[in-house]
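User: Sequence in, structure out. Go.
Assistant: Echoing your sequence, followed by the structure tokens.
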Amino acid sequence: MRRFIPALAFIVCIIVLWELVVWGFSIPEYLLPAPSVVFSRLFSIKAVLLTHTAYTAFESALGFITGSALGILLAVLFVHSRTLELGIYPYAIALKTAPIVAIAPLLIVWFGNGLLPKVIVAAIISFFPVVVNTTKGLRNVDPEAFDLFDSMSATQSQIFFKLRVPSALPYLFSALRISSTLAVIGAIVGEFAGSDRGLGFFIMISSHRLETVDMFVGILFSSLLGILFFYGIALLEKIVVPWGKHIAADTA
């Protein structure tokens, strides 16, 4: 709990400064609403916000699970086949570099404005960090441990499940923390492209109506959802990989 104190102190200072600047310079509400106005509006429409947040969370979770599962599967294939990696990896990079804001409208055209396009967008944007880090983790095996397994005539499956997988778990969870927040971004981008619910839809409608306060409320809830996903994965990591150390995710 102590490690959260600096972050909480910083955000409190920002909120106080923001409030003072708005009231001190008499900034119009449609340009920059004061935090007190934003929080007041938040509580007055909390039922609607929770409905939109729940829908976005569902899209994000499905996309995150799908993208992560595909990333793990591809990483396993890459470790077992260098030829397969050389053949597929360039296309994974191409998918990573393709602008997601351009892909989302295309998916809406193909699949409509229902749940599926948002899940696909969230899966695409969360896929790459998982495949990169998991591949690195599966290959980052202690040579001495590998020699020990080899001297004991361990089978390939034993080496994989008892040596490679434990070695890869810290790398995997490092990527999952990043991908979980990216999945939220992907779902919201998909909602911008076409939806009738969700936080992205709420923010977009608010912007069309020039309801700046509601836009800030939507942005706040989007950030809180991403934080919830991030620390949820971090908590799961402590349970599953108590021996692991945090490893910076390679998202390049």
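User: And one key feature?
Assistant: The chain has ten helices and no strands.
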